[in-house]
Specification:
The complex is a heterodimer. By secondary structure, chain A is of the alpha+beta class. Helix content of chain A is 37%, strand content 22%. In chain A, a hairpin with a 5-residue loop joins strand 8 (275-281) and strand 9 (287-290). Classes of the chains: A alpha+beta, B alpha/beta. The complex binds iron/sulfur cluster (SF4).
Chain lengths: 292, 191
Amino acid sequence: MNALNDSLIELIRRTSVELPDDVNQALIRSLENEKKGTIAESALKIIDQNIVLAKRKSQPICQDTGSILFYVDCPVGFDQIHFEETARVAVTEATKKGYLRQNSVDSLTGKNDGTNVGPGAPTVHFHQHRSPEVSVRLALKGGGCENVGAQYSLPNEKLHANRDLDGCRKVILDAVLQAQGKGCGPGILGVCIGGDRATGYEFSKQQFFRKLDDRNPNAELDALEQDILKTANELGIGPMGFGGKTTLLGVKATAANRLPASFFVSISYMCWAYRRQGVRLGGAGEITSWLY
Amino acid sequence: MISLTTPITEQKIRSLKVGDPVSISGIVFTGRDAVHKYLHEGGALPPQVNLRDGIIYHCGPVMMKEVDGSWRCTAAGPTTSIREEPYQGDIIHKFGVRGVIGKGGLGEKTLAACKADGCVYLHAIGGAAQVLAECVKKVRAVYFLEEFGSPEAIWELQVENFPAVVTMDSHGGSLHKEVFAASAAELAKRL
Ligand code: SF4
């Protein structure tokens, strides 16, 4: 098969069976931080063992291998149609090899043809840039954590949340409270303030491509991220909602312009099985380096 | 760590409290949405499936068929339990189930059945598909494979030292309720 196809299969394999280093480090730190002898500590220990085992056996970290989300940065003139066709073949092959579960269901008929390919699956987003470089990022986003994502429209009377940063803070923390025990925490939040309903969620998901230890260049958003992370970890929800110190591993926020009439806050939740990777590709489609 | 070996007595179940870590060995039967709905609507279990004093596991495992026709379990993490809330209490009562393994917990109806009939909810670690698959020592049999498909079938698994935590006990205790109330109170102080 061609080099691009092989590269994409390897990208899928590695994303599915290995966590990126920044996520691993964050999980190890939270394990050290939990009180010894608690069920929170033992949950994180099992998570840790699971990560080691999945990598060693080259098998999926979690059996829910998630929605397959590709993001491609490419130069002007890049053949997007060829890329997308190759990606669909690579997904089908990666499924046959067991790197992905047969995980995609026809919403009308309920049929699962076992290929992971169909309308909207996988999704491929392209972004053109002036550099000659081609890079491909991939996130595998599980269903349990996707189900606890939330979109709030401000003002929100029940939560006393107005159209300001304090209102955003209130609804984001409410989402953390409601998600407990459901999305396989400790979790990571991607947040978008503003946008319309679709772009709000889309931008919130793109935040998952930031590294956990980076800082937001916007001072206000940076302060919000740090505050939400600190506050959420004071609530005592803990891993799996068992109680404990680690409720979130990170918060990443962005803002998009909105209409005067709308004020959405969109929150995507990622589980501890935070599967994201990326590669730079050479001229023939071969992998030249890894991004995470 | 408390060892639980099937079949489990009511007395043993009544001795468990919310927060107890347990290690499960013996036979567990998987069952998720289709099985719960079927049993709730009066469907019969195959004679070989005896849930009395046994355990139901909310799980859609990944199974590979070997050349000799046997099955190997390659991923076996828990699925979200709350979807079974409408059915679970009745099934516990009717079939004498002593333990339900899953993730995320169940609601009031199940909690009441746990108290009345002597059953507990055992929370497994969500996402830990590989660690939990290693605890499955043998896939003994499968039922309803044709009718419900592989993830929804009843798989009879022999497990050893399968780790879980009691998060709902037979005395009305629920860790999910406790943690929610405590965290909501902490949040209120910080708004
Ligand atoms: S929420 Fe994440 S870790 Fe939990 S079952 Fe889904 S994909 Fe796996």
